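job 3f2a | input accepted
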Amino acid sequence: MKAKSETRPPPVDTKNLDLSGNRWQQLASFSNSLSVETLNLERNELTHVETASLPALPRLQSLDLTQNRLGSKLQLAPIFDSFPQLRVSTCTMPQ
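job 3f2a | predicted structure (95 res):
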């Protein structure tokens, strides 16, 4: 009997990835997304963003985090260290 092979989704071949309005509270890892330059995560319920979620996005230049539950830009400081070319948009929602 043949072992069932694991299939992985093909890499996302897009420059602009819009994941807005999903009510996500936490980010998953973005594997297979090597070409993404713009990531829209507005109108979710994110309270923080881990840089470990973003290493598979080496071309990321713009990250929209408006209308999430982020406390302050200080929580985003590690992202700026990892992606010096990154432009981040933020605006917090009331808690």
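job 3f2a | The two ends are 55 Å apart (CA to CA).
job 3f2a | closed
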